[in-house]
Amino acid sequence: MSQLAFTLIIASVVAINAAEPVRLTDTAGLSHEPLSSAGRKATVVIFTLPDCPIANAYAPEINRLFADYSSKGVGIYLAHVDRELTASDARKHAADYNLRCPVLLDSQHTLVKALGATRTPQAFLIGPDGKTLYRGRINNLYADYGQRRQVVTQHDLRAALEAVLTNKPVLQPVTEVIGCYIQTTFPIKTP
Question: Distance between CA atoms of 113 and 100, rounded to whole angstroms?
Fold first, then answer.
């Protein structure tokens, strides 16, 4: 199957799933609908696990993304997917890594299933129409497992955000994610 066909299938599945309201609580107890586009130009959801060293290494960049894009009408969320993580433990993790964006608790994997997430720190960029415009890595900080680059040379999520905010097509809508697998109780179908 070609990359374009794969992208179109994923986009259509996500558009269907995004139509169903997904409501999650953050570490402060506030309710969010991350797939709702109300008042946003775009939404970013990044999946994480508190014990995934690769996801944790991205905390500074997630904070930079939040600082750079939240004022431009982009909703940015971090979604914890550990089924046994308590709100207290999630708050501690957020404090330990100084996370500034809303940190959602997705212990039932509602958001995982809606977007088809498979790893952390997998990022999804959703347009105002509910379609996934980008899915993949945040950037190329990791060349492979255990192989961290000294210098990031590809800022995939930022490039996708810039394209969406300037009404241009995302040139590379899917990238491979290096990270920790999300343990699910349902099959994730990938073409």
Answer: 25
Residues 49 and 81: their CA atoms lie apart, in Å, by 6
CA–CA gap between residue 13 and residue 157 (Å, rounded): 20
SS3 156: helix
Write down the H helix ranges in 59-155: 59-69, 87-96, 110-115
Q: Considering only 111-125, 148-162, 172-186, which range has the smallest mean pLDDT?
A: 172-186
Distance CA 35, CA 23 (A): 9
Please report the DSSP string for 34-83 in residue order: TT--TT-SEEEEEEE-TT-HHHHHTHHHHHHHHHHHGGGTEEEEEEE--T
Distance of alpha carbon 66 from alpha carbon 142, whole angstroms: 21
Burial class (CB in 10 A: 0-12, 13-18, 19+), 157: buried
How far is Cα 48 from Cα 123, in angstroms, rounded to an integer? Answer: 10
Domains and CATH numbers, the chain: 3-181 (3.40.30.10)
CA distance linking residue 160 with residue 162, whole number of Å: 5
Bigger pLDDT: 13 or 187? 187
pLDDT tens profile 66-80: 999 999 999 999 999
